[in-house]
Amino acid sequence: MAISKCLPVLKHFIGGYSLKTGAIFTGWLGLGADVLELVLSVVYFLAYGRQLPDWELLLVSAVGGCAVGGSVCGLLLYGAYKAKRSFLVPYLILGALGIISSSLVISIIGIYAVLHDFNTFAASMMLIGALIIVFLAYLWLIVFSYYQQLQKCTLLEHRGSVETVLTMPENGDVHTSHHKFLLRGKCDGAATGHIPDTKQLICDEK
Length: 206
Hints:
Blueprint: H1 2-6, H2 19-47, H3 55-82, H4 89-115, H5 120-160, E1 162-167, E2 176-181, E3 183-184, E4 201-202
Helix pairs in contact: 2-3, 2-5, 3-4, 4-5
C-alpha cells in the first residue's frame, strides 16, 4: 500500500485516450506477443532444438510460460472491458516482477560490457533493451492508473450511491422515504468525473 501511494497516477493514455483504452491496448499487445512467442518457440524446437539436451522439457517450459502470460493478459482484457479491478491484479503483480527482473538483467549486462569488451553492438542492445523496459513500465503505469480509477469509483459508489431522504407531506400525517440515486453512468472510462453541488458523480468514458 505504501509503495502504491508513491507511484504516479496517469490521467490518460497516449493521444488523450482513456485509461480503459490503454489497458485494453496493453492486454491485446501482451496477448499477441505471447501467441507469437508460442509459435516461434514451437517452430524453433521442432526444427532446430532437437539436438539440445532435454529439449522436450525446454519446449514444455516455453509453452507453459506463454500459457501463463496469455492467461494473465486474458484476465487483464476481461477486467478492462468489464471494469472489474480484481482481474487487473495478476498483470500488475507479474508485470512489476518482469520489469524489475528485466531491469536487473540489463544492468548486469551493461556492467559486464563496460568492464570487459564494450562496443557499438553492446551499446545498441543496451539502449534497445532500456527503451523496451521504459515502454513496458509506461504500459504498467497505465494499467495501475486504471486500477486506481476503478478503486476510487468503487469507494464513491459505496459511500454515496444511494441516499435515503425523509420527507413529510404538508398534512404531516405520513412519513415517506425515497431513494435518490447519486451515481450516474459507469466508472469504467477516463476520469472526467466530478461531484457537483447536486452530489451527482459522473464517470464518463472518452
